[in-house]
């Protein structure tokens, strides 16, 4: 962390013309950084319980359960379909 020599305000990193500089937001004092990796701006966004995502899962096994009569009907339809395809 670096502070402005004029008013003691925290200097904030900013890129200008491809160079990283430290700038005082109060008086506008500027200085170039010596090590670009040291300085970065981190913005933390506070989240409330309203912002959370709710995931609702559905039990797919129950959705596709069929009884024996339905299973037999589907089997009969499939056999008819493949028999017709084989005839042409």
Report on the structure:
This protein is of the alpha+beta class. It contains two helices and three strands. The protein has helices at 60-63, 68-87; strands at 11-16, 19-24, 30-32. A three-stranded antiparallel β-sheet has the order 1-2-3, with no helix packed on it. A hairpin with a 2-residue loop joins strand 1 and strand 2. The longest helix is centred in the C-terminal third of the chain and has 20 residues, at 68-87.
Topology, element by element:
Blueprint: E1 11-16, E2 19-24, E3 30-32, H1 60-63, H2 68-87
Antiparallel strand pairs: 1-2, 2-3
Summarize the model shown:
With 88 residues, this protein is of the alpha+beta class. The chain has helices at 60-63, 68-87; strands spanning 11-16, 19-24, 30-32.
Strand residue percentage: 15-25%
**pLDDT under 50 segments (min length 5)?**
none
Largest sheet: 3 strands, antiparallel
Gyration radius, in Å: 34 Å
Proportion of helical residues: 25-40%
SSE ordering: EEEHH
For this entry, give a set of tags:
rod-shaped, 88 residues, alpha+beta
């Amino acid at each position: 962390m670096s502070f402005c020599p004029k008013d003691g305000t925290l200097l904030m990193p900013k890129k200008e013309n491809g160079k990283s500089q430290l700038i005082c937001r109060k008086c506008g004092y500027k200085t170039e950084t010596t090590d670009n990796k040291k300085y970065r701006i981190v913005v933390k966004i506070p989240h409330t319980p309203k912002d959370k995502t709710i995931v609702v899962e559905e039990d797919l096994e129950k959705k596709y359960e069929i009884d024996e009569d339905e299973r037999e009907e589907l089997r009969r339809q499939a056999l008819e379909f493949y028999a017709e395809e084989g005839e042409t």
